[in-house]
Specification:
Number of strands: 13
Radius of gyration: 20 Å
Number of helices: 9
Structural class: alpha+beta
Low-confidence stretches: 138-151
Shape: globular
Helix content: 25-40%
Strand order of the largest sheet: 1-2-6-7-5-4-3
Strand content: 15-25%
Distance between the termini: 52 Å
Largest sheet: 7 strands, mixed
Order of helices and strands: EEHEEEHEEHEEHHEEEEHHHH
Mean pLDDT: 92
Length: about 325
């Protein structure tokens, strides 16, 4: 068993279950769970009476799950908002083909509390205010090829991860604007280059060269969920919101708030409670589309040309 960020990682599902639930454990029922287009998901009922949630993917995609677990762990450490309980990550050679997995405590969703959206807004504001030092620089004990350290980095994360199915670089930077240009927008534009005309490319270059004319450095760095749309928020058994499927990094909290507006689904009470607990910097509405440009570029690179129009519209908005 390997320890990464205090999350156990096993070399077989059977070994993981024995370590977690005892030597007599058996899976008595497996139910396919709908939702998500990257991983397969299952509810596993055990003879111990426990039920667990398992995500599975190809063995070579094990980093999807170690990165997700690290993000959930980071959110949990802020003590501001709930996430599913992580049991372990692992890989298994399987009978026919190998696979990787993430095991979480199964969440039975309850009915939303009357103040569901207000509580989510207040709790997200608390997460965004939490100290972020532990998410950038490590003491060296957990270093591996994916972990980046920087003596002056305020923005980034201690390891690279994924947004959807695409890799997301989190190399620490002392400047939020530089980080957003170099590790968010620029890589997505490069990967989508075949969609753009020569005139488009000139506009993109101008936008990236003048990003400091539009974005601001935040008053304080914040731990971000990183992929905060309504599908990555679920109602827990206590009737309060839980965050799932993170793409965490430390950045400007405006990026999280902007994404909540991209695809809708968040109640107005959420925004009122958030802004009461943590007022946004003046001019957020003028910056919002730039933050969502990253998410739309990511969708363009994953799903194709249906997202080209919105991407070019935002580029033209700023240049």
């Amino acid at each position: 068993m390997i320890q990464t960020n205090n999350i156990p990682d096993y070399t077989s599902l059977a070994r993981a279950l024995v370590e977690l639930f005892g030597s007599s454990v058996k899976i008595v029922q497996t139910d396919r769970v709908s939702g998500g287009d990257i991983n397969k998901a299952y509810g596993l009922s055990l003879n111990t009476g426990d039920k667990i949630f398992m995500k599975a993917n190809a063995k070579e995609n094990a980093e999807f799950f170690t990165a997700e677990a690290a993000g959930l762990n980071a959110i949990k450490s802020t003590k501001a908002i709930s996430t599913p309980e992580i049991l372990c990550t692992g890989t298994d050679d399987g009978e026919d083909v190998g696979y990787s997995f993430l095991l979480l405590k199964f969440i039975k969703s309850g009915g939303k509390k009357a103040d569901y959206w207000e509580t989510l807004g207040t709790e997200l504001a608390a997460m965004h205010k939490a100290d972020t030092g532990a998410f950038i620089n490590l003491d060296g004990s957990d270093k591996d090829k994916n972990i980046k350290t920087s003596p002056d980095g305020r923005f980034g994360f201690f390891q690279d991860n994924f947004v959807g199915a695409r890799a997301q670089k989190n190399t620490p930077s002392s400047s939020w604007i530089d980080f957003f240009r170099d590790y968010r927008l620029a890589p997505q534009f490069r990967d989508a280059d075949s969609y753009f005309s020569s005139d488009d490319r000139k506009k993109i270059t101008k936008l990236l060269d003048n990003l400091d004319h539009f974005l601001i450095e935040p008053a304080y760095p914040s731990l971000l969920h990183g992929d905060l749309w309504s599908g990555n928020v679920m109602c827990g058994p206590d009737g309060k919101a839980m965050l799932i499927d993170p793409a965490c990094y430390v950045g400007n909290r405006e990026a999280d708030i902007a994404m909540t507006e991209l695809f809708g689904g968040f109640g107005q009470e959420f925004y009122e409670a958030y802004k009461k607990a943590a007022p946004l910097e003046p001019g957020y509405e003028e910056r919002r589309d730039l933050y969502n440009l990253y998410q739309l570029l990511n969708h363009l690179n994953i799903f194709g040309s249906g997202y080209l129009g919105p991407v070019l519209s935002i580029v033209s908005e700023y240049v």
